[in-house]
Amino acid sequence: MRPLTDTETKTLFEKLANYTGRSLNNLLTDTLPNPSSKQPDRYVFRIQNSRVYYVREALANLATSVARDNLLSLGTCLGKFTKTGKFRLHITALDVIAPHARYKVWVKPNGEMPFLYGGHVVKAHVGRWSEDCPEHQGVIVMSMNDTPLGFGVTARSTAEARRLDPTGIVTFRQADAGEYLREEDTLFTT
Amino acid sequence: MAAKAQTRFSTDQNKRPTKSSKPGLSSKARKPGSIKTAAKPTQQKAKPTTTLTKKKPPHLRYTEKELKVPQLNGIRPTGVQKAAKAKKGKHFVDDKDQMNAIMAMVMAEKEGNIESRMMRARQLEEIREAKRVEAEKRVEGKKAGLEERKQDIKDSKRKRRGQTNGDARAEEVVDVEKSKKPKKRVSFG
């Protein structure tokens, strides 16, 4: 387990910034002091076996006492670096990026299951969408009661999507909460 | 006596190797222990530190400038990216300020990207709208022209019909009668 290098940090932030707005800065701010720890703690990014974790610094410091080979995971896994140096976001990062989302797509109840089973979002299933969203932009997919279900990439800009037929794909799926079951045996292994 | 002494000496000599061989055997048995005691890394390491900490006598204290050695050519060749003294290996970012700087840079880049994409999308949308309006106008114009032509054809047909039905027939009859009268005939016989 080690901190990220500058290039890795840049790659990670670039990926996160695809989905989030300026409020992503909040990820780096200190937490409020709580009764258990009077000093404000901060969250840091740590890399372990090519996976990046978003973890409280105190916890990261404690984890140094575990051998690298024995340490499986800690904190929240955001994703992993590929061998070519790109970064892949995992569904586990949804809880970190959803509160800071820039663009959102709300799917109707009849579109939730198709999406959670790994399908793309079609226009007929869209309940609402953020205005002024360009093409190929990262979006968070939400249910109508504002529960984040996953994230994806827009297939069309909002203006173009309006003219699309009901079966046309509006958002390409990148990750959905159904992966917790479908990818259960590979999600947390190295 | 001398021979006796010789023999005694020889026996002594003979004895010596046997004596010396015995401790050799015993030393073999002791060897590992003796090596351990001999190799004391702390003692060896202690030597240079003591020499370093010791203050040099004043006549041996000098700086690099006082030596008047010509300046080393410190120009970095164009092909070399890193300075000679730069840190080798990975450069970790664990500082909040550094992290914030990287994030600000990335955010500005992304924001600019999105803005430019939106602008381009808007421009394309405008162009598309203008094209659509133009195409609609053209289709309408064509339709109007067609309608006009249809109307013209209809009108002309009606006119023709009206002419053939009313005056045109009478005129024709008159014409026929008129044309019949001045007909000249030539007869032989």
TrEMBL record, chain A:
One term of GO molecular function = RNA binding
Q: Which GO terms describe its cellular component?
A: cytoplasm; nucleolus; preribosome, large subunit precursor
Please report the name of this protein according to its UniProt entry.
60S ribosome subunit biogenesis protein NIP7
Q: Which UniProt keywords apply?
A: Nucleus, Ribosome biogenesis, RNA-binding
Q: Which CDD domains match?
A: Nip7_N_euk, PUA_Nip7-like
Q: Which residues form the signal peptide?
A: none
| Domain PUA: from-to ranges | 103-178
Subunit organization: Interacts with pre-ribosome complex.
Cited function: Required for proper 27S pre-rRNA processing and 60S ribosome subunit assembly.
Please give the family membership noted in the entry: Belongs to the NIP7 family.
One GO BP annotation of this record: maturation of LSU-rRNA from tricistronic rRNA transcript (SSU-rRNA, 5.8S rRNA, LSU-rRNA)
Give the PANTHER family listed for this entry: CYCLIN-DEPENDENT KINASES REGULATORY SUBUNIT/60S RIBOSOME SUBUNIT BIOGENESIS PROTEIN NIP7 (PTHR23415)
Source organism (scientific name): Baudoinia panamericana (strain UAMH 10762) (Angels' share fungus)
| Nucleus in keyword set | yes
Query: Where does the record say this protein resides?
Result: Nucleus, Nucleolus
Write down the InterPro entries for this protein, in alphabetical order.
NIP7_N (IPR040598), Nip7_N_euk (IPR055359), PUA (IPR002478), PUA-like_sf (IPR015947), PUA_sf (IPR036974), Ribosomal_synth_fac_NIP7 (IPR016686), UPF0113_PUA (IPR005155)
One Pfam family named in its UniProt record: UPF0113
Keyword Nucleotide-binding present in the record's keywords: the answer is: no
TrEMBL record, chain B:
Gene Ontology MF terms: mRNA binding
Q: Where is the composition biased (Basic residues)?
A: 180-189
Where in the sequence does UniProt note compositional bias of the Basic and acidic residues kind?
128-155, 168-179
| Annotated region described as Disordered, given as residue ranges | 1-92, 128-189
Gene Ontology CC: nucleolus; preribosome, large subunit precursor
Q: Which keywords accompany this UniProt record? A: Coiled coil, mRNA transport, Nucleus, Ribosome biogenesis, Transport
Bias class Low complexity marks the residues at 36-52
What is its subcellular localisation?
Nucleus, Nucleolus
Principal localization reads nucleus
Q: Name one GO biological process term.
A: ribosomal large subunit biogenesis
Q: Could you confirm whether the keyword Coiled coil appears in this record?
A: yes
Chain's role: Required for efficient assembly and nuclear export of the 60S ribosomal subunit.
Q: How does it assemble?
A: Component of the 66S pre-ribosomal particle.
- Which family does the UniProt entry place this protein in? Belongs to the LOC1 family.
UniProt-recorded name of the protein: 60S ribosomal subunit assembly/export protein LOC1
What is the species listed in this Swiss-Prot or TrEMBL entry?
A: Baudoinia panamericana (strain UAMH 10762) (Angels' share fungus)
Instruction: Tell me the organism's taxonomic lineage.
Output: Eukaryota, Fungi, Dikarya, Ascomycota, Pezizomycotina
